[in-house]
Amino acid sequence: MKMTPYILTLVCLFTTAYVQANSDNEKTISIQPNGSQLPMTGLEPYFTGPVRVEPVFQAKGEAKGAGAMVTFEPGSRTNWHTHPVGQTLIVTSGKGWVAQWGAQSQVIEPGDVVHIPANVKHWHGATDKTAMSHLAIQESKNGKVVTWMEAVTEQQYIKK
Prior knowledge:
This protein is an alpha+beta fold and about 160 residues long.
């Protein structure tokens, strides 16, 4: 199709209006309705046992942070993993464990805030007898949020 000056002008006007509308949205408070992001089951290559992951927020605009509410059933946990910018966990219910590579696991309970530094190999999850939920917040670096590694063995999991 040949672009006449009239059609070209209309395309430019619509494109400009679209870009302005989207950039205006970046400068306007937005509300993401509760339940608008569907929960998912933690995938077997990354978790042991039943885990529910509920996305809470995604990075928008220039922001790089994202968060999810993660619920671990008793005995459930993540695999060993690292985060390029670190991770913050805010325990909201139950009782769980978190461990850094080469160290004993530590108990985490509601209200605890766990700061995991960048590139520290770790895992977290429920205890063997209690479920645990936490809000997990992490940022991306060069588009990457996590590096997944091997599963936590039963011996590593129960080691206290």
